[in-house]
Sequence to fold (162 residues):
Amino acid sequence: MISMIRIDDRLVHGQVAVKWSKQLSVDRIVVVSDSIAKNEIQISALKMAGPAGVKVAVLTLEKAVKILNDPRSEKLNILVVTNEPKYVLGLLPKLNEDPILNMANYGRIGGTLSDKEKVTETVYLSQEDKDVVKQIFGLGFDFNYQPLPDDAPQSLKSLIGG
Fold:
């Protein structure tokens, strides 16, 4: 079962590896990125960043859909992490469940901040990002903006006026 899908530029790091994994009682972390899934150095680093007892897999979108819909995954608590909204849009219509969506620490890496709208202290969205996020809203989903489990969740839809 997917406990949560999180968009976070840093993918597997302290907040995800320690705080969220513990809060969600995660057995697996699945990183979804077509480009990172082809980079052995990044795969190795992400696997090492996972907390003790939690397996980390780095998968393409296509492979992630197969794994996440596999009946064996129903017995696991899985945290899905990606660094691009397009992967969430690609996953949601193909999944057999409706997971919680979370976004934090996104948009400050890569690109120019002046081309992005500051939505929160840790979320910056380009017009392309906003278009993809609005498509996700159109599927009936919203994101929680919640950097840490102890933070109060806020609706990203409300924050960006979508």
